[in-house]
Amino acid sequence: MFEPIVITGMGAVTPLGLGVQALWQGVLAGRSAVGPITRFDAAALATRIAAEVHDVDPLAHFDRKDARRLEPFVQYAVIAARQAIADAGLDLRPPARTRIGVIVGTGIGGVGMLIEQARVLETQGPRRVSPFLIPMMLPDMAAGQIAIDHGLEGPNMAVISACASGANAVGEAAAMIRRGTADVMIAGGTESAILPVAIAGFNVMGALSTNNEAGPAANRPFDARRDGFVMGEGSGVVVLESLAHARGRGARIYGEVAGYGASADAYHMAAPREDGAGAVAAMQAALASAGLTPADIDYLNAHGTGTRLNDAIEGHAIRQVFGAEADRVAVSSTKPVTGHLLGAAGAVEAIICLMAMAEGAIPPTVNYAEPDPACGGLDYVPGGPRRATLRAVMSNSFGFGGHNACLVFRPVPGEAG
To answer: Are strands 184-191 and 234-242 parallel, antiparallel or unpaired?
Structure first.
């Protein structure tokens, strides 16, 4: 019997603001952060909207040197990790910090720095390329910088599995604690890829919504009018430890990481398997590792990107897994509010699931108004949030390359969260 692994701290930097409460209140209210792109002139792009982070002044969080040398995806992760560590009340003094590790996932990493320095190379020559190019672009730098920030000497790495990265990071962190590699893990995802080349790339794939005039109403998961996702950015970070370790130091406990499943479609570089077999396998593995059945799950936070293929295939995969329970379970996507945070999505949505359990509320699928029979006819929580006692919740994250990750959370008896 494995010792339960629990979440004792959470932090978030999202387009809804700084902190978990800003994220949760925005999601619950259905207050979309989607708006016109302000970082650059997007006039030539088919998609001119995104969910940008506006509340981070680097100089409020870093000295001038670090503010210059840390890419935004690293800054967001460091800020979210500081929040999570403070929330958990961790003792970071030696020897405790030698047993604290970090895993932070990202889908894209420091591509902005790479593009900028490629231009420098082309226009000014190789001697003008920044000596900080390599460390600034490396995807593992978010995890590395969090360790540097706090002196954490445990295992440290990045998980890179496209839009499943954040969920995989949380699941793998729990596995590390179970096998005794660390006592505490800081885990999550981070992304900052609202860039012309990224928008253009997703546009030519047909993945992004081009309904610019709709603004906050553009992203419509599971709706018959959906035409793609809207890109977001930010970071979600959580603190994981064993239940015994958490209780031993009197920590507040948000919930247990009860189950984790991962699979590969082994099918196509961008499209999900038409039969949903990979998604089905990940959900079934998560349930099995939690020792639960579909009848135990009360809420599922869907990957729910708002693309034609993903939503239809995910809806039918959920129906396959849940069977007779499929019409009972509440399913919603929170991406219309936060934007699709790519490699950070799974971690941010894990935090949303934990808050849903703690607060007894199910967030709605904003902009869902015209059901699409192709999406499986599930209860996609239209209209507004619902009050509910949640015995266990599930979170799906799927990524290009056929990566599938699923997390299951449940309350810990006797813990208020």
So the answer is: antiparallel
